[in-house]
Amino acid sequence: MKYTYYGQSCFLLETASKKLLFDPFITPNPLAKHIDVKAIEADYILISHGHGDHVADLVALAKQTNATVIAIPEVIDWVKNQGIENVHPMNFGKFAFDWGTVRMVVATHSSGLPDGSYGGNPAGFVIEADGKQIYFAGDTGLTVEMKILADLYNLDYAILPIGGNYTMDVDDTLIATKYFDCDKVIGVHYNTFPVIEIDTKVALDKFAREQKTLLLPEIGETISL
C-alpha cells in the first residue's frame, strides 16, 4: 500500500486495486502550490467532515475522477446538490466494498459546510485492505472513544492530526496511540496555518523517546506502508 501526502489532512492511499483520496484541500493551500491537482486520480473520495480545509477541492475532483464520495449523509446531501451523483453515504458503522472494508468512527470536533449548512457529525475512518488496517482520525480532540479501536483492530498505522488548537497536538496524539495500541503514526493537520504550526523536530523527538514512529512526509511525497 502507498501513501501520498497532499498537505493539511489530504492524502491518497493506493491499495492493490483502488485509489482512496481523503479530505481534498489542495488548491487553496499555499504549501501545496506545486501539486498538479489535474493529475490526481481517485476511485473513492472519503470526507471526514464538511469544513473548508477538508472539502475545498471535493467537487472539482469528484467531477474530474468520477470517484465515489464516501461521507456522512449531511455531507452527501451537499455533494449531491453540487451535481455529484456517485456517492455512498455512511454513518458510524462498517461496510465491505469489493476491495476492502471501511468503518466510520467517532471524531470529537464540529462540522459545517461551505454554504453554512449543517455538516452532520465529524468522523474518522478505519480502512482494511491488502492485509493492513489503517486508522484516519479526521479532525478530533483526544477522546476515550478511541479505546474501542484496540478491541476491534490491530492497527498497522494511524493517520492523526498533530497541530493542536483545533485538534490533538503531539502530546495528545502520543496518549491516543496508547489508547488504540499503535506505534506507527503519520502526522497530518499541522503547519498549514500559523495557529497549527509546530516544531517538527520536537515532535519527532517526543515520539522517539516513547519508542514510537512519527512519519512526516513532505507534501507530494509518496511512502510505502
Walkthrough of the structure:
There is one protein chain. The protein has helices at residues 52-55, 58-65, 73-81, 149-152, 170-180, 200-209, and strands at residues 2-5, 11-14, 19-22, 44-46, 68-71, 87-89, 94-96, 101-106, 123-129, 132-136, 157-161, 184-188, 213-215, 222-224. It has a single domain (2-224), classed as Ribonuclease Z/Hydroxyacylglutathione hydrolase-like (Metallo-beta-lactamase, Chain A), CATH 3.60.15.10. The relative contact order is 0.15. It contains six helices and 14 strands. The mean pLDDT is 97. The protein has 225 residues and is of the alpha/beta class. The strands form two sheets. A seven-stranded mixed sheet has the order 6-5-4-3-2-1-14, covered by helices on one side. This is UPF0173 metal-dependent hydrolase SAMN04488023_12120. InterPro entries: Metallo-B-lactamas (IPR001279), RibonucZ/Hydroxyglut_hydro (IPR036866), UPF0173 (IPR022877), UPF0173_UPF0282_UlaG_hydrolase (IPR050114). One of its GO terms (molecular function) is hydrolase activity. Residues 7-189 form the Metallo-beta-lactamase domain. Keywords: Hydrolase.
